C-alpha cells in the first residue's frame, strides 16, 4: 500500500495530486519489479551432529521442529536426496552412520512432513536410481537463516546399494545437475536471478581448516583472481556435470625447487580431458598409465601402498617415504592452479564406531586416485580438493562455467549473475528478499525428464519446466496490477471523502450565520431558505406595512410567512426606532 503521507498530500492537491501520486506509486512498483534478488549464501564447514560428531558440508535444516543435516552439492544428481531415519548399511553402528551420512532425517518427528501429489513425477537422475530405491516426500527445507522452501519435494533413500556411490558420495545430496530441482524452484520463485552457483570448498588440510561457501544466484567475486578459464557445458556420458576441461600439463613441484612434468614427451602437446566433479573426495582421478606411473618413476619408488576407506575414499595411502612436494595443473594460456603439499598430503581420517573422527598421522594420504585395473578407462576428474585453491562459478541459463585461481581472503564480495551470465550492478539489488518463504509444491507442472529428454532440453533450451505452475507465476503479475488499482482507488476515495467533508463544513458554517434573535418570542426560528429564497425560485412580493407601527426587519420577514399567520410582537425595550419604509428584500443571502 502507498505511504500515508502520499495519500494525505494527494488529497490536498486535487486531480493533479492524484496523478502525481499514481506516477510515484508506479515508479516505486517498477523499481521493485526491476530489482534483482541477492545471492543465497550457504557456508561449507564442520556441522555439529552430536556432542562428539561433526561432518563437513553445507548445513541445511529439514522439517518442523528442524533437523540439521550436513549435505554436499552433487553434480551427479538433479534431486535432493536424504538418508534416515535408520542406517541402510547394517554393518555400521547408528553413531558411525550418522556421522558418515551427515545426520539421519526422521520424517516422523517433523510436523510439516508430507506426501507428494499422486501425479508428481520426479526429475530423473542416472538410471541406477530406480523408483523402488527411494520414496518421495515433502517437507520445509531451510537453506539459510532467513530463507526456506515450503513443502519441497525430495527423495529418501530406501536402497542405495545399487546406486554405486559407496564411499565416494556417502552424504545427503543437494542435486545441482542441469535439471536441479532446487535451482529451478528458487529461480521460478524469483528468489535468485539465475540458475547459477559459486563454489569454494574451503581448506581441509594439515594445520588449515578454513570454511568455504556455496552460493546460489551468483558468486563471491572476492575469492577470484585473474581472468579465469571459461568453457561451455558439454553433454557427455563420461561427465555427469557437463563441465569438461582440458589439462595441458601436470607438473611436480619438487621440494628441491625443480619442476618436472608427468606428461609423456611423446604427447605432442595433446592435452588430457577431465570432468569437473566438485563433490568427489579427491584432488584428481589420474590415469595410472602413463601419468601416475611417471610420477612414481620420477621419485624412484612406488607411490601406492594401499587405498583409504575413510573420508578421502580410495585415495592413495603413501609409503613411508611419502611425498613432500606440490602439484601444478596447467590449462594453457597462462592459467595454472598450484596445490601446496599441506593440501595434497594429509593424515588418513576415518570415523570410529562412536561416530568420532580419528586422524592416523602414521598413514598419510596422497589425494590422488590412480585409475588402474577396472577403472583404467574411466574419465579423469577434478574433485573437491582442487577447489581448495580454485573457485568455480557456473550458469545453467547460458550453459557456461568459469574457474579462477583462488584469492584466499576472508572478505566477501557477493555479485549477482543474470540469465545472460552478466554481473548485475549492485545498484539494482533488492533491499530485502521480499518473500521469506516460497512454496514449491509438487504438481503436474513439475519437470519430468528421462536422460534423453534432459539432454535434449538442456542442449536446445537450457531450461526445464518450473516447479511453480503458470497460474502461480501469473498470479504474481495480476497481484501487482491489483495493487496499483487498489492504491489508485484508495487515493481517489480519500480525496473524494475530504472534498465532501469540506463541502459539508461550508454548508454548516453558512447555516450558522448569526441573526438578532435575542428578543424574538418563543416562536420557531424561520427556515433559512424561506428567509432568503434563491433567484431560481418564486419570491413572495414585499407588502406595505401599517404606517403607525415601526417595523423591524425581522417582522418584515415574518409577515411573508403563510403559516403560522403574522402575530403582533412586543416592541423592544430599546430606544424608539424611526419608522422605516418598506424595502425590497435582497435578491441573495448575505455572506
TrEMBL record:
Residue ranges with Low complexity bias: 438-452
Claim: Transmembrane is one of the keywords in the record: yes
Protein localization: Membrane
Record flagged with keyword Transport: no
Region feature Disordered, mapped onto this chain: 438-463, 557-591
Leader peptide range in chain numbering: 1-32
Residue span, Peptidase A1 domain: 56-404
Keywords per UniProt: Membrane, Signal, Transmembrane, Transmembrane helix
Membrane topology category: Single-pass membrane protein
PROSITE patterns per the UniProt record, alphabetical: PEPTIDASE_A1
Transmembrane residue ranges: 472-495
PANTHER family per record: PAIRED IMMUNOGLOBULIN-LIKE TYPE 2 RECEPTOR
Identification of the protein by name: Peptidase A1 domain-containing protein
Amino acid at each position: 500500500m502507498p505511504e500515508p503521507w502520499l495519500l494525505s498530500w494527494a488529497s490536498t492537491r486535487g486531480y493533479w495530486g492524484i496523478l502525481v501520486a499514481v506516477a510515484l506509486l508506479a515508479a516505486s512498483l517498477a523499481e521493485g519489479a526491476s530489482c534483482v534478488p541477492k545471492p543465497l549464501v550457504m557456508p561449507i564447514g564442520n556441522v555439529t551432529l552430536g556432542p562428539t560428531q561433526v561432518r563437513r558440508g553445507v548445513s541445511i535444516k529439514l522439517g518442523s521442529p528442524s533437523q540439521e543435516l550436513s549435505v554436499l552439492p552433487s553434480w551427479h544428481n538433479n534431486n535432493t536426496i536424504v538418508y534416515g531415519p535408520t542406517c541402510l548399511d547394517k554393518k555400521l553402528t547408528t553413531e558411525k552412520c550418522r556421522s558418515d551420512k551427515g545426520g539421519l532425517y526422521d520424517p516422523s518427528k517433523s510436523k510439516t512432513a508430507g506426501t507428494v501429489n499422486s501425479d508428481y513425477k520426479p526429475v530423473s537422475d542416472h538410471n541406477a536410481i530406480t523408483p523402488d530405491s527411494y520414496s518421495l516426500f515433502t517437507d520445509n527445507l531451510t537453506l539459510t537463516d532467513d530463507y526456506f522452501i515450503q513443502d519441497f519435494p525430495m527423495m529418501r533413500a530406501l536402497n542405495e546399494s545399487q546406486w554405486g556411490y559407496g564411499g565416494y558420495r556417502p552424504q545427503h545430496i543437494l542435486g545441482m545437475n542441469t535439471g536441479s530441482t532446487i535451482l529451478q524452484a528458487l529461480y521460478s520463485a524469483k528468489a535468485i536471478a539465475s540458475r547459477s552457483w559459486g563454489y569454494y570448498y574451503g581448506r581441509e588440510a594439515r594445520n588449515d581448516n578454513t570454511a568455504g561457501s556455496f552460493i546460489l544466484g551468483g558468486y563471491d567475486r572476492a575469492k577470484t583472481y585473474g581472468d579465469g578459464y571459461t568453457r561451455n557445458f558439454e553433454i557427455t556420458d563420461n561427465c555427469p556435470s557437463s563441465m569438461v576441461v582440458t589439462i595441458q600439463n601436470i607438473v611436480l613441484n619438487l621440494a628441491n625447487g625443480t619442476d618436472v612434468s608427468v606428461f609423456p614427451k611423446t604427447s605432442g602437446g595433446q592435452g588430457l580431458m577431465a570432468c569437473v566433479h566438485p563433490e568427489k573426495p579427491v584432488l584428481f582421478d589420474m590415469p595410472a598409465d602413463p601419468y601416475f606411473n611417471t610420477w612414481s618413476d620420477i621419485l624412484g619408488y612406488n607411490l601406492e601402498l594401499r587405498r583409504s576407506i575413510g573420508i578421502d575414499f580410495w585415495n592413495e595411502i603413501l609409503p613411508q617415504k611419502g611425498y613432500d612436494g606440490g602439484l601444478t595443473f596447467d590449462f594453457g594460456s597462462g592459467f595454472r592452479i598450484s596445490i601446496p603439499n599441506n593440501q595434497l598430503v594429509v593424515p588418513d581420517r576415518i570415523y570410529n564406531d562412536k561416530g568420532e573422527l580419528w586422524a592416523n598421522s602414521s598413514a598419510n594420504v596422497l589425494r590422488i586416485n590412480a585409475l588402474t585395473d577396472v577403472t583404467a578407462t574411466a574419465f579423469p576428474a577434478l574433485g573437491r580438493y582442487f577447489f581448495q585453491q580454485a573457485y568455480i562459478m557456473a550458469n545453467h541459463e547460458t550453459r557456461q562455467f568459469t574457474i579462477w585461481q583462488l584469492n584466499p581472503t576472508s572478505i566477501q564480495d557477493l555479485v549477482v549473475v543474470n540469465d545472460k551470465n552478466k554481473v548485475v550492478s549492485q545498484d539494482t539489488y533488492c533491499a530485502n528478499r521480499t518473500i521469506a518463504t516460497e512454496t514449491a509444491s509438487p504438481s503436474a507442472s513439475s519437470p519430468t525428464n528421462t536422460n534423453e529428454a534432459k539432454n535434449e532440453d538442456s542442449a536446445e533450451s537450457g531450461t526445464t519446466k518450473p516447479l511453480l505452475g503458470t497460474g502461480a507465476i501469473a498470479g504474481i503479475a495480476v497481484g501487482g496490477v491489483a495493487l496499483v488499482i487498489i492504491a489508485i482507488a484508495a487515493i481517489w476515495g480519500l480525496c473524494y471523502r475530504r472534498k465532501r467533508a469540506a463541502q459539508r463544513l461550508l454548508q454548516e458554517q453558512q447555516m450558522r450565520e448569526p441573526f438578532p434573535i435575542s428578543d424574538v418570542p418563543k416562536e420557531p426560528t424561520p427556515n433559512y431558505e424561506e428567509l432568503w429564497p434563491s433567484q431560481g425560485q418564486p419570491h413572495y412580493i414585499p407588502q406595505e406595512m401599517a404606517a403607525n407601527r415601526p417595523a423591524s426587519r425581522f417582522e418584515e420577514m415574518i409577515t411573508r410567512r403563510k403559516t403560522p399567520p403574522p402575530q403582533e410582537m412586543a416592541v423592544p425595550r430599546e430606544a424608539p426606532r424611526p419608522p422605516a419604509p418598506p424595502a425590497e428584500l435582497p435578491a441573495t443571502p448575505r455572506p
